[in-house]
Amino acid sequence: MAVAVTAALAMVAGCSVTPPPPVVGTVPPVPSAPAAKPGEIVVGVDSIAGGYNPHVLADQSTITTALSTMLLPSVFRTAPDGSPQLDRTLMVSADVTNNSPYTVTYRLRGDAAWSDSAPIAAEDFLYLREQMRDEPGGVDSAGYRQITDIKSEESGKVVQVTFASTYPGWRSLFSNLLPAHLLKDAPGGWDQVLESSFPATAGPFSIKQVDAARGEIVLERNERYWEQPALADRVILRRADQAGLTDALRTGHDQLVVARTDAGGVTMLQALGERVTVKAAPRPSVVSLFFRPSGTDFADERVRTALINLIDRDEVIKVGTGGGPSVRADSLVLAPSQAGYAPTGAPVHNAAAGQELLTQAGFSLVSGVWTREGRPLSVTLGAPADKEPYLQVAKEVQRQLVAAGVQVKLLTPIADQLMRSSGTEAGPNILVAPRPVGDNPAAVMASVYGCTTGTNDASTVLPGNVAGFCDMSLQPTIDSALNGSRPLTEAIGIVEPRLWRQAVALPLFQSADSVAARAELTTGDLTAPLNAPFASAVTWQRKQN
């Protein structure tokens, strides 16, 4: 085709007929996005997909962290050093006022109110506690289950919370309060809470528009906010791919980028030079594989251990991170970004050991497939279809296990459906899911690996326990870390070796975003723990040239 075109052009050039002048400007270029206006800050993100409920595992994402941090009130916020700090934009005080029974008294500011003018009050505390205690797939359900009673005083502005026993982790509770007066009787219940937007907000910003088709969420300064108003008129969260994000940052269409990137994306951002600061900000989640110890095959610890040995974890991590800023995780409780983190014994890839364990469990390799009594070893592998990098990780795990002789069926429902079914008999054998990272690791340990307190039924697990795992012999140690009678490090030293041996979870990496800011944008700490960089959004400001 190229030769024919060249020949045709040569023939035209040899003729005496003068070619017509070229047509200019018939298709004007269309800009990828409008430039930011004065008083407006545009943040480039990789996704704006809902839901946006910060309290459920299914919704854990950068966009959820961004919106909950800027729109919802919290009793405590995580300080730059990782410690909980009382948020005085909402609170007057929060103190332990009785040790028997263990009671915490919360005093809210009288002027703190939702954007529809309803006061932030005790009913918001009660609503959140009830949902976290009872609903599956929650984050930090163990902490809320310690509460035995919530009482309202002074028109709901004083909240008395009573616990079953001493609970030193109480400061981690009641973050990102939700408007109970609008949600408690809402159609769809907890399943639909913050599915696509926020019915009311109580932060420095409010939602003006969520445009899924354009990939844009527009936040405006909340004129009803009772505290220091946001310096920016608007914050726009705008979706683009890696190349688009880099280009928008280079041209000044975006002032900030907070997005999951691979090695190529990091290189593109760094190539922008001194005018852009590029850092890595860890997300509050560790991408993990959970092996549910139920069913004929998976109830056998040898089978679960064999599958872990057959998986080349290094290769899965490589595929999942893409060489981006996410960090390998080698602990079952603490994340790499947390104080005290240290590798605790993650297994290495050992195909021969995996094959030996399957043989001991009664399986034989027949025509390249592991079978027992004429039945192939078949695994269901679940990953959310609407969240990355979970689907990428699942496909790599599937590829490896199939190559090793294991039949694998990949299930990819939406995240909420998958997480709600994960701890039940209908759930997958292996789940690719986030393990929460919070400022109360004891509660994370109890939620992810704990049984329901006060029962001897090993099938009764906490709603946040997505593996459906319960070892009653470990529960006293888990409970002792939760109530502070045993140091966390000591409890981890007892619990983690047992968890590794029982092969119920395999951590892969702590997700992290690339955070890139233009020089004219004044921000706070770009890598503050758990909610970076959005915790300082109220003070974001563009320098005017």
Automatic annotation (TrEMBL):
Organism of origin: Kibdelosporangium philippinense
Domain Solute-binding protein family, first and last residues per copy: 103-413
Name this protein carries in UniProt: ABC transporter family substrate-binding protein
InterPro entries: SBP_5, SBP_5_dom
PANTHER family recorded: MONOACYL PHOSPHATIDYLINOSITOL TETRAMANNOSIDE-BINDING PROTEIN LPQW-RELATED, PERIPLASMIC BINDING COMPONENT OF ABC TRANSPORTER
